[in-house]
Amino acid sequence: MYASRIGLLLLLMSAVLLAQGMDVTGRVSLRVFNVDYDETSELNPDSANYGKTTLVPGLQQYLNMAVFARTSKLDISLLGDIRNDKWTPLDSYKRVERLTLSARFSGNEIVLGDFFESSSELYLFSRDVRGAKLDFVFEDLWNRYAYLQTRVVGGIVQKAVKEGEALPTLYKQYVNSALYERYFGSAQVELGERDKFSIGLNYLYAKDDPNSITESVNSPLLNQNAGLNAALYFWDQHIKLFAEGYASKKDTINADKAEDYAYKAGLDLRFNKVKLQAFYQRLGYDYYTAGNPFLLNDWQGVKLLGAVEVVQGLTFDVEGQQYSNNLKKFDYLPTTKTRIAGVGLNTNFRRWPDLSLRWRFQDDLSNDIYDDDNNLTRTDKISRTFDATVGYASGNNRISLSGIYVNLDDNSLVFGDSTQATEQVVFSLNFYTRPSNLLFISGGAVYSTLRMTGGEQSKNLVLYESSRWDIIPMKLKFETTLNYILNKADGGKGYNDLLNNYNQLALEVALEYFFTPNISLKVLGGSDGRRMDYTKEQALKVIGDPDYGPMYFNGYETYNGIKYGAEINWIF
Asked: Secretion signal: which residues (predicted)?
């Protein structure tokens, strides 16, 4: 029912666009394929939220489209990703992965559907919204450089998920303790004169719908943010002074209200071949914004970034930071001061390989905290990072090699002990070659090792490849993709090594035939499998341990699957 309504809506939109006599271009792709493997588990066969792997089984449909309509004054785009499968059936409009209609005209924008919105890390940053956006710019106010910009965004930033229900578009293993549907609104107004100044007002309101789910271990949330941002430009815009500050209020039914603030102020200098940015920033312990819920708060300090091109093709850059946490001075938490310093070199000389070298040092120093039982807590760490990349391109061929080395001296003392990384090495290779207009091959490899405190260590190898061969130009194409993972672990606590020793291979080949330059049919097939190194006897011993239980191997069993299907593409 919902799928048919969506299809009808898309047809109506397309008809309206065509009726306007617009220049319409785009692509529509429909893939139907089946993934087949034995889902029966010998370890936990009766749990609805247990699976041998996170690979979705059964018949699946995936619709992808990108439609663009243009006139001399108007650009309209319709983008969509719609998926239907066994674990997340398309039985509600909430299951639609992405559907976006946008219109741009004279510097203004209107968006309906799903989109990402960003303005500031402290306020609204890379937030996935299902709703609407109105962004209008009014020009030539008191002179031709003066403007007023208004941006209003509203919609849903968190979909309702019942307790024990899998998150939309994710695997059935990823259940949760329930999420309320969260409504969100943001209004921003900025007044300014280009090349001279700008000042803006910002207000954000977010609220959970308590009736969207029947029960949850969490309380519904109410969040408000209000703030200002400003910038001044000097010396023909070579110097920019900027500042922004926000006050937040977070309220839940079963908890006290939390109010705090955050601000950032600094200088941005760009002159000839020199770039310099320095700012001071504070993020309060209780500061919260629904526009960026994963923002790391509780720190205050300064950051400096700089770069200078010494000669054409040779650039040096520097980084410096110092900040501290525990802004509320809790006596049961250590106060840690972090210092970071980094230097880098980059080359880009014609006919020579590109080279990038970077070194970074970080130390965390804290005071000593004792609890009532005289247990000591301290968070002292020193890390050193060195990375190097060399790349070369010639014609239609490119190759790059890179390596990263991280060494961590962890002198922390945490009651109960926690494992910390002590040494990590990563090597990677990437290549692309196009020996002719009929063939390209790309791929690479990543090898990494990690050694942990207490003797725990792991090694990981990833190989990947993709290629396309035009067997008959503009008529018949052959494609391949390959991904291989080998993981080895040793010395882990408990039974951790049983989950981290495996090898996995996914291979897909496809043959695409073009009936016309605009319509093609692709037939595809492949395999997807994983072999875990543990035996059934070892696994049964683990799940019989009451400290681990029958869900321990959820998503981490051996499986052998095949996939096959077809895809039809229409380019217009």
From this structure: 1-19
Q: Whole-model pTM?
A: 0.86
**Dihedral Cα 160, 207, 136, 94, nearest 10 deg:** 10
Calpha distance 285→97 (Å, rounded): 34
Do the Cβ atoms of 345 and 354 come closer than 8 Å? no
Contact 263, 245 (CB under 8 A): yes
pLDDT band at 2 (very low <50, low <70, confident <90, very high): very low
Radius of gyration of the chain (CA): 28
Give residue 246's Cα distance to chain centre.
25
Amino acid at 454: G
Helices (H) and strands (E) in the chain, counts: 3, 28
Does residue 416 have a pLDDT over 60? no
Query: Closest Cα to residue 568, out of 514, 525, 511, 520?
Result: 520
From the list 194, 191, 193, 104, the residue with the least C-alpha distance to 150 is 191
- pLDDT (mean) for 398-418: 84
Which residues are registered as beta bridge partners of 129? 115
Q: Which of 189, 207, 224, 181 is nearest to 119 (CA)?
A: 189
Name the band, by pLDDT with cuts 50, 70 and 90, for residue 51. Answer: confident
379-385 mean pLDDT: 91
Inter-residue contact 82 to 62 (CB < 8 Å): yes
Strand partners, 360: 342, 385
Domain boundaries, the chain: 107-265
Helix (H, G, I), strand (E, B) or coil at 9: helix
62: phi then psi, degrees, rounded to nearest 5: -140, 120
Tokens of 34: 């089946």
CB 431 within 8 A of CB 398: yes
Examine the pLDDT at 169 and tell me if it is beyond 70: no
The DSSP symbol for 219 reads: P
Secondary structure (H, E, C), 113-150: EEEEECCECCCECCEEEEEEEEEEEEECCCCCCEEEEE
